[in-house]
Design a protein that fits this description.
112 residues; alpha+beta; HIT family, subunit A; 22% strand; globular; binds adenosine monophosphate
């Protein structure tokens, strides 16, 4: 499958990993919009939030715990941060492998 995040998972593409376990990996975004900008992804290829199945319930819970770890590792657990998953065209999703942006390290604004 021609998916850049699957290539990061299987080591074909390099990444700056923050955290990895059997089911998930978290790595620095190549084009960060804030001092902390980490992508947390499942190793399993799921195209977007819309493609999460009932069989993925445990995995999605686990991803939330991975995000907690990422927040602690990067220090934004102390200051606050934002978690975003973009979906489809209007959501401006550019990589079609489920990923959660963990963004922080500065005061964020809220605008769509
Ligand atoms: P989205 O636009 O929500 O699909 O987010 C995709 C994100 O992946 C963007 O913020 C990109 O900067 C980031 N990205 C694309 N390729 C890479 C890569 N090879 N390593 C790290 N981040 C990447």
């Amino acid at each position: 499958m021609d998916c850049i995040f699957c290539k990061i998972v299987n080591g074909e593409l390099p990444s700056q990993k923050v955290y990895e376990d059997e089911f998930a990996v978290a790595f620095h975004d190549i084009n960060p919009i804030a001092p902390v900008h980490v992508l947390t992804i499942p190793k399993k290829h799921i195209s977007s939030l819309l493609d999460i199945g009932t069989e993925d319930k445990e995995l999605i819970g686990h991803l939330h715990q991975v995000i907690q770890n990422v927040a602690r590792i990067t220090g934004v657990d102390k200051t606050g941060f934002r978690v975003i998953t973009n979906i489809g065209e209007h959501g401006q999703q550019s990589v079609h492998h489920l990923h959660y942006h963990v963004i922080g390290g500065r005061q964020l604004e809220w605008k769509a």
